[in-house]
Amino acid sequence: MDYKYIEQLLESYFDCRTTLQEEQILRSFFSQEDVPGHLAEYADLFKYEVEAKEEVLDEKFDQRMLNLIAQDEKQKTCAIRMRTRHFVPFFKAAAVVAIAITIGNAAEHAIGEQEAEENNATAISPYTQASEVQQIIRIKDVSQAKTKPKNDSIIGITTTDGIQ
Amino acid sequence: MLDFQHDILPLKNIIFRTALRIVLNREEAEDIVQDILLKLWERRRELERVENLEAFALTMTRNLAIDRKEKMDNRHVTLDQRTHDQTDEESPNADSLLMAQEKDRFIANAINSLPEKQRCILQLRDIEGKTYKEIATMLNITESDVKVSLFRARNEIKEKIIQKKLLFL
Q1: Which residues have CB under 8 Å from B117's CB, separation 6+?
Q2: Rounded to whole angstroms, how far apart are CA atoms B4 and B7?
Q3: CA triplet B69, B70, B72: central angle to 5 degrees?
Q4: I need a labelling partner for B96 at 20 to 30 A (CA). Which of A137, B12, B70, B113 fits?
Q5: Cross-chain residue pair A52–B150, CB shorter than 8 Å
Q6: Interface pTM (ipTM) of the complex?
Q7: pLDDT of residue B112
Q8: Nearest-by-CA chain A residue for B159
Q9: How far, in Å, CA of A133 to CA of A154, rounded?
Q10: CA–CA separation, B119 vs B17, rounded Å?
Q11: Cα–Cα dist B95/A24, whole Å
Q12: A70 to chain B, minimum CA–CA distance in Å?
């Protein structure tokens, strides 16, 4: 049998002039059992090239991979939840501050109103007091006997008037 | 829409073999496959526009594998330094394990002792059957660069085959 073609291909192979098809021919040729002696030394190389492609990952790997993908998807939803959970203390703190401010404002407002009311009360008082005083004075005029306790209030009112 | 089982998972074997050729350690190579497949899955939306997913995956694989190999080698250096003082019981050298497995696999050893770029190119051309153009794209080099490296790789192995023959004559 003439091996000139194979010998030529082999030479081209080492010169990187072979096509992928020609390289496949070499692999097929060297895969057979009876390779002639003078070419036998190259058989291991081409046999190895075929064998090395049989190196694969088994189904266990696939299963592990699919589990990881499923887990990854689950973790992502968890991560989103975790991210919001991360801010919970801040939300709480913000809520506390907000409540404090609201209460503060409300309190200030209430005190303000109270003060305003008090102010109003004192502001209005001159008229009311005036009429009261007039009444008291009239009562006083009518009977001198029961004026004692009323007198205190008159003094009180007039003192607040004095402050004003 | 990319499907994990139909589009990404089938790349596992070529990724595994390419990674294995670079890191020369099965466990590490399997780890790399896992990481690459997960990364591809995470980026599935942007990958829909990628023309050749396999080439893209193999570029990622090579980069990651080179990185891991460097880290492995560094780890071994520190391990070697430690074993000078300690008894040599802990973590057997991964490379030597692989060497033991392939002790009588002359060709495998010849290929694995080539420089990384050469053995990676030889893997892609002679084992995976990729064109020069595909390999050039994957490695981001020119086609003539691929040919030069492949030429050196094939001839280095040829040299070893001839030497071996002479030794056994």
Answers
A1: B139, B149
A2: 6
A3: 60
A4: B12
A5: no
A6: 0.83
A7: 96
A8: A14
A9: 7
A10: 12
A11: 31
A12: 11
Selecting from A13, A41, A55 the residue whose C-beta is nearest the C-beta of B20 gives: A55
**What is the model's pLDDT at position B1?**
83
Percent of chain A surpassing pLDDT 70 = 63
How big is chain A, counted in residues? 164
B159 touching chain A per CB within 8 A? no
**Radius of gyration from C-alpha coordinates of chain A:** 53
Residue B150 pLDDT exceeds 70: yes
Best of B111, B126, B132 to mutate (most A CBs within 10 Å, chain A): B126
Q: Is the torsion defined by CA of A114, A117, A122, A125 positive or negative? A: negative
All domains in chain B, ordered by first residue: 1-101 (1.10.1740), 102-169 (1.10.10.10)
**Average model confidence (pLDDT) across chain B:** 88
Facing residue for A14 by CB, picked from B20, B107, B154:
B154
CA distance B85 to chain A (A): 39
